[in-house]
């Protein structure tokens, strides 16, 4: 598995993210790769409508509950969060590995070393695939229209 392939695959999901957050996601992929851990990006920016559709699952729509955040109550809705999945490689193909093993915790550590907040640290709802970078802005501030600076020089 080549690093360039992992990075290429990630780009579709990284569009719509704040450029600094997208850069941190790329750095996370790269650093994990250096340790032999392959990750893919499964979610990035989500519209408020998409978030509300997810929130309805297991509540007003059939399915199981996948989020505790309704539209506007997730950093995904503001392009400041992304989700990953650790993968195994089988015959050259990436196979998502959702069982929580040491790789997930290592990815969490690497993410934190990049300044990201990791959902695996949350107390009430552990969200191991989730990373966010809030610029110190609360969701209430974001809902009120406050935005992070657009042009931040990304640290590589
Ligand atoms: Zn997430």
UniProtKB/TrEMBL annotation:
Residues 69-133 form the Peptidase M15C domain. CDD domains: L-Ala-D-Glu_peptidase_like. Gene3D superfamilies: 3.30.1380.10. GO terms for molecular function: peptidase activity. Pfam families: Peptidase_M15_4. This is Peptidase M15C domain-containing protein. It comes from Geobacillus proteiniphilus.
